[in-house]
Amino acid sequence: MSSWVLPGAEFDELLRSFRHRAWRWECQGTYRQPAEAEPWRRWRAGQHDDLAWLRPWLDQVASATRAGRLIARVRVYREPPTEYQLWQLDVGRANVAAGEDVRVLTESRARSLGLPAHDFWLFDEARVALMHFEDQRFAGTEIIASPGEVNQYRNWWGAACEHAVPLFVYRHDLGRRR
């Protein structure tokens, strides 16, 4: 059974309350989150970013990892990466430094593995938060808890993790190709 959860406090609670592992599948080429608009504009202009806008997330990741919980994600990158994805390669260094396991899978590889074309979080391998977007902005979450459906997401998680490369490996390889 699924239920719709509006963005905000309820979704944030999912990100705080997992026990062991929170894993994100992120497959859009661009996200238009209001908190990212000004930092992205500064990056595009070549200006310094102190990442203050990202600090709450980085602190949450660091706290979780200190407590022995894992936060990880696999980002699907277009070929070539979108401008947003190039920005995320820079910003992602802070995520990794905070303790998040960030990996990359190319879009063609994800497609060949039959991985989904929608974003989601998998919490403790027992609940899925299927993320919905409107005009590249987060619009809400559908919670999936039925074992059969969750099992499909666990299978996708396993395939993605097996084939994705760490963010810094992808950055290095991308730099050599350019």
From TrEMBL:
It comes from the Bacteria. Residues 9-170 form the DUF6879 domain. This is DUF6879 domain-containing protein.
